[in-house]
Amino acid sequence: MKLIPFAGKEYRAPARIWTDDRLRLEALFRWREGWNTFEIATFLGVPEATIYNLNLSKKEKVA
Q1: 7 in a domain, yes or no?
Q2: Residue whose C-alpha is closest to residue 16's, from 43, 44, 39, 42
Q3: CATH classification of the domain holding 61
Q4: Residue pLDDT, tens place only, 20-55
Q5: For residues 47 and 2, what is the distance between their CA atoms, to the nearest angstrom?
Q6: Does a structural domain hold residue 10?
Q7: For the chain, how long is the longest CA-to-CA vector?
């Protein structure tokens, strides 16, 4: 996590700002390699619930 200044205050944010599609794609690749949700979340710098809520499937097609 890093602090990002906004409107005179600092807010905690992931080290990287992810778009939903990019986050899902990165997580899906890790999931298919056998990583669990905690490992993926730690690697991507997001809360584990974010990864869990993606409902990843090993059968999902990647465009």
Answers
A1: no
A2: 44
A3: 1.10.10
A4: 778 888 888 888 888 888 888 888 888 888 888 887
A5: 14
A6: no
A7: 45
